[in-house]
Design goal:
Blueprint: E1 2-8, E2 18-21, E3 28-34, E4 40-46, H1 52-65, E5 71-77, H2 82-97
Parallel strand pairs: 4-5
Antiparallel strand pairs: 1-4, 2-3, 3-5
Helix pairs in contact: 1-2
Length: about 100
Amino acid sequence: MDTLNFKRPARAEAIRPALVGYVGSGDLEVMIEPSSAGCADIHIHTSTDGSEARWRQVIELIESVMKLPVMRMDIHDFAATPGVIRLRIEQALELAREDAA
């Protein structure tokens, strides 16, 4: 088990709490909460040791196509593939932005 933490630049925008996915069957759970930290504070609990480089690449890829909001994101991973990781994070971000304003 690894615990990873990333602090990324973020923009202030209205978001609401969001939850997508579930831990199990090679999937992952993504939870988002508004934050006053001034950054995107991402906490990852993963069953895959030595996966920091993979997580960093996925987060950077998401940042290249969408701005991250000021938030706390908690991810519980059970060996999800990079494609599933990206899908779940993007789903959570879309849900957090829906009707938040």
